[in-house]
Write a structure and sequence with these properties.
Number of helices: 3
Strand order of the largest sheet: 1-2
Shape: globular
Largest sheet: 2 strands, antiparallel
Helix content: 40-55%
């Protein structure tokens, strides 16, 4: 029987952040935690956190601002996060 392939960690993290935005933990217009804070919170590498944030930016869920701050935009009509 073939093994089911688990999603990469950055996609799992991206989905977790999407869920937290949609649940109101990071309201629209507020800044997400820093990369370093997210690394500590999720026990993830900086590369993993950056890739997750990149997916959120590409999906329109967050926007980048000067100084690398990320603001929740909470777009509900977004394509699914996929590889």
């Amino acid at each position: 029987m073939p093994q089911l392939r688990q999603q990469p960690r950055y996609l799992q993290l991206a989905q977790t952040l999407i869920n937290e935005i949609e649940d109101g933990r990071y309201p629209i217009g507020t800044l997400l935690p820093t990369e370093f804070d997210l690394c500590d919170q999720f026990g993830a590498s900086r590369f993993t956190v950056r890739e997750a944030i990149k997916r959120l930016v590409q999906s329109g869920m967050v926007s980048r601002q000067a100084g690398s701050a990320r603001e929740s935009s909470g777009c509900r009509d977004r394509p699914p996060i996929a590889r």
